[in-house]
Amino acid sequence: VGNSCVLICSHKPNMTMATWKINPKVGGPCSLGYRADQNKTDRTNCSESINWKSRPDRDPTLEIRQVGRAHEGRYTCEVVVAEGNFHTSYHLTVLVPPRMTLYCDDQGNPVCEAAAGKPAAQISWVLENNSTPKEEGHDDGTVTVLSKFTAYSTNVTTCIVSHLAGNWSKSIVC
Q: pLDDT digit string (tens) for 98-141?
């Protein structure tokens, strides 16, 4: 989320046409096209964040700026040359890093939360305990994971959140 994404479409010498067909999970399809004989580009229903990375006559690579969950879906590039049509397809999945919080509950137990991540984060503790993380799914496809440190300790307790978008740790004394 928030980064730029580049999808490569192989450039062929003497390309006559290049087309990106985009079918997002949410919303309607969009397309970008380039015709070499007219040196003309065309776009249909694509947001401004989706565009050619540079000049399509030199390189038909696609760039998505400020990637969001709405950009998830199937991206297919077709390049037309005299020898035939060449396709490249991608399935774009957007990772959402969770928001990590660590606090003490009413009984003095450390509670670690990894909120609204996609996919669900993994929570672990530096010291072993018998906690079973609870997951709550949200309508937007994100997941909140909650874990309570249940082993008795008056020392510093450290929670570790592991996610495809990164790893975080925090410590607390309750």
A: 999 999 999 888 999 999 999 999 999 987 777 778 999 998 88
Strands 134-137 and 166-172: unpaired
Q: Which residue has the tokens 């297919």?
A: 76
| 3-state secondary structure at position 70 | helix
Which ranges of 12-139 would DSSP assign to H, the alpha helix? Answer: none
Domain annotation for the chain: domains and CATH numbers: 5-92 (2.60.40.10), 99-172 (2.60.40.10)
pLDDT 10s digits, 47-103? 999 999 999 988 999 999 999 888 999 999 999 999 999 999 999 999 999 999 999
Residue 19 Cα to chain centre, angstroms: 23
